[in-house]
Amino acid sequence: MTNKFKDKVIWITGASSGIGEALAIEFAKQGARLILSARRIEELNRVALLTKLPPLDLMILPFDLKNTNNASALIAQIINKFGAIDVLINNGGYSQRGEAISTDIKIDRELMEVNYFAYINLTKAVLPYMKNKNSGQLVVISSIAGKFGFYLRSGYSASKHALHGFFESLRLETEKFGIKTLIVCPGKIKTNISFHAVDAKGNEHNKMDESHANAMSANECAIKIINAISNNKEEVFIGGKELIMIKLKRFLPKLFSKIIRKQSPY
Question: Is the C-alpha dihedral spanning 246, 1, 212, 116 positive or negative?
């Protein structure tokens, strides 16, 4: 892996754990300058120490993705320190483990706010700076759930599907300004996403699904994401054997329908 990202200013949301944490550590190895964002400032401080970056090259910018109305003010802080944002990685969010019929609409709205609208708010606030510079990269962490629906994930899957529609359109509109857009679709990755997923009442699932416990590490996933960014990919699928379902859905839909019904929700 080359040091293509040396001195590049990279903003990572959801940087306090999982894929976001792993991305921060890997980018730091390449000499990037980082902005780390999430709700939990104590966890951001922990990750900051792991990056081993000096204060000059690091910024901790905590906020809650449930409210990104202050996106412009957040970005102003970044520009004030670094003068630019070269890469925005929209990574923060959470999943779901509840049947649609028993899930309160409030939870569906919150999933859309955090997993979709927050990404849109941050992206729209960053775009003018990238346009003026005539360069920049937008990275969107979607999911294979953005390619097909699955048990207990109706709201989550909907929020991820929405990302594809928005960012595929945005890519076409902004590439003339030198802005590149990558949509990342992880499958099963060993993170706490299932642990923190919400049930039909909004309570945490509070356990790691077996399929995640035995999955690809967040570190390996991060390296693959960075390679995709470096190679200017438009879309990348990362995971294990579960990725075959994406091809089946597209090329053998009847077989996909038979197989998906036999899968465990966990």
Answer: negative
DSSP state of 115: I
Q: Are 91 and 65 in contact (CB under 8 A)?
A: no
Residues 6+ apart with CB under 8 A from 250: none
Q: Sheet containing 87-90: give its strands across.
A: 58-60, 33-37, 9-13, 87-90, 136-141, 179-186, 235-238
State the greatest distance between any 2 C-alpha atoms of the chain, in Å, as a whole number: 55
Instruction: Give the class (CATH, top level) of 9-260.
Output: alpha beta
Q: Quick check: 82 and 58 in contact, CB under 8 A?
A: no
Domain boundaries, the chain: 9-260
Pairing verdict, β 179-186 and 87-90: unpaired
Q: Is the pLDDT of residue 195 over 90?
A: no
Identify the residue whose tokens are 């990685």: 89
pLDDT band at 163 (very low <50, low <70, confident <90, very high): very high
| Calpha distance 136→84 (Å, rounded) | 10
| DSSP class of 52 | T
Residue 104 in tokens: 């309160």
pLDDT in tens, 77-123: 999 999 999 999 999 999 999 999 999 999 999 999 999 999 999 99
Q: Which residues pair with 181 in a beta bridge?
A: 138
Terminus-to-terminus CA distance in the chain, angstroms?
34
3-state DSSP assignment of residue 116: helix
For 202-252, what is each residue's pLDDT tens digit?
A: 998 888 888 888 899 999 999 999 999 999 999 999 999 999 999 999 999
Neighbour count for residue 71 (Cβ, 10 Å): 18
What is this structure's pTM? Answer: 0.96
Q: Which residues are catalytic?
A: 156
